[in-house]
Design brief:
Layout: E1 7-11, H1 18-22, E2 27-29, E3 32-35, E4 38-41, H2 50-59, E5 65-66, H3 71-82, E6 87-91, H4 99-113, E7 119-123, H5 128-144, H6 148-158, E8 162-168, H7 172-177, H8 182-191, E9 193-199, E10 205-212, H9 214-228, E11 239-243, H10 247-260, E12 267-271, H11 274-280, E13 284-290
Parallel strand pairs: 1-2, 1-6, 6-7, 11-12
Antiparallel strand pairs: 3-4, 3-5, 8-9, 8-13, 9-10, 11-13
Helix pairs in contact: 3-4, 5-6
Length: about 300
C-alpha cells in the first residue's frame, strides 16, 4: 500500500460494513433516519443489534423516514478533512437523493476558505452496494497510489457501467417512498409478481420486466446479467449482492452466479443498510456488477 496524497471520502449508503471501509482509511459521512420523531444514525453494522431492531420497528408498523444531508453538515464534515489535505468525495447518487447538490454548494463556500485545497465531488449515480462496488474499486486504486485527477476521471468514466438489478417480494415500502408507482405495486401484490427493477442512466429506479415468484425473479435477474455483464458469462470482475432481511436467498443467488459465471472468483454479500431499507423494507435482493453503459 502506498501513502495516500489526499483524503478519500464516501457516504454511509455504500451498504458495506463501516469496519471494512474504515480500516482501509476512508472517511464516512453518515445519513440518519427517524421513527416516531426519534432520530437514528445509519449504523453500517457497527452495532449488531441495530439492523434487527430496525426491522422490528417496521414489523410493528412503524414507518422510518429519511432526509437528505444538508449543506451545513457537509460544510462541517468537509472542513475537518480539508484542514489536513485535498479530498475526493464519491457521493450517493443524485437519482436517489438531492444531497449531492448540497455537497457542491458546500464545496463552493469552502473553496474561499481553503483556496489552496482541492475538494473533488463525484456524483456516483449509484445506490446501495452498487455505490459500494464503485467505492470499493476506487479504494483499491487509492491504496495503490493513483492521483486525485486519475481517480476522478476513472470514477466518472465507469460509474454508468455499474449495473443495479433488484427485485422485492414486498412492494409496500417502494410504493410509499414513490420509488415505484402505486399501480405497479398493486399488481405485484395481487398477482404475486416481482417487478424486476434497475437503475437507469440518471440513477433512478425503473421497472424493466417482471416474474411470478421469487425463484423466477432470481433466475431472470441472473439471465439479464448474462446479457449485460462485461464479457457475458466470461465476466471476471467484482460482483456484489445486497439484501434486506433475505440472507438465505442472497446466498442462493450467490451460488447460482458462481455456477453460471466460472471466472468470478468471489461474490460478496452485504446487508442493505437502514437508509436504503427505509425505502425498500424487507424482501429485497439486489445484484451489482460491471456491464455495458446503463440506458435511459
Amino acid at each position: 500500500m502506498m501513502k495516500q496524497k489526499f483524503h478519500f471520502s464516501c457516504e454511509s449508503t455504500v451498504d458495506m460494513p463501516f469496519e471494512y471501509v474504515n480500516k482501509r482509511g476512508a472517511s464516512v459521512l453518515f445519513y440518519s433516519y427517524a421513527v416516531d420523531g426519534k432520530e437514528y444514525v445509519d449504523d453500517m453494522l457497527r452495532n449488531e443489534n441495530a439492523l434487527p431492531e430496525f426491522y422490528r420497528l417496521i414489523k410493528d408498523g412503524k414507518l422510518p423516514t429519511t432526509s437528505q444531508i444538508n449543506k451545513f453538515k457537509y460544510l462541517e464534515y468537509f472542513d475537518k478533512l480539508l484542514q489536513n489535505g485535498d479530498v475526493l468525495h464519491i457521493a450517493f447518487g443524485s437519482g436517489m437523493t438531492p444531497s449531492v447538490k448540497n455537497a457542491l454548494e458546500a464545496k463552493e463556500e469552502l473553496s474561499i476558505k481553503y483556496p489552496d485545497r482541492r475538494l473533488v465531488i463525484v456524483d456516483s449515480t449509484c445506490s446501495s452496494s452498487g455505490y459500494g462496488l464503485l467505492v470499493d474499486d476506487a479504494l483499491d486504486m487509492w491504496e495503490y497510489g493513483y492521483e486525485l485527477d486519475e481517480l476522478e476521471d476513472w470514477a466518472n468514466s465507469i460509474k454508468l457501467n455499474v449495473h443495479h438489478q433488484f427485485f422485492s417480494t414486498d412492494m409496500k415500502m417502494f410504493k410509499r417512498s414513490g420509488r415505484v408507482s402505486g399501480a405497479t405495486a398493486m399488481v405485484a401484490t395481487i398477482l404475486g409478481i416481482c417487478p424486476l427493477m434497475r437503475l437507469n442512466k440518471a440513477g433512478k429506479i425503473i421497472s424493466y420486466s417482471r416474474a411470478r415468484g421469487k425463484e423466477k425473479a432470481m433466475n431472470e435477474t441472473i439471465r439479464t446479467m448474462e446479457n449485460k455483464a462485461i464479457d457475458g458469462i466470461s465476466y471476471s470482475g467484482k460482483c456484489f449482492i445486497s439484501h434486506s432481511s433475505m440472507y438465505d436467498d442472497a446466498i442462493r443467488m450467490k451460488n447460482k452466479i458462481l455456477e453460471k459465471f466460472p471466472n468470478i472468483k468471489e461474490v460478496k454479500v452485504f446487508d442493505i443498510g437502514t437508509i436504503i431499507a427505509s425505502h425498500t423494507g424487507p424482501g429485497t435482493i439486489a445484484l451489482f456488477y460491471y456491464g455495458d453503459e446503463r440506458i435511459e
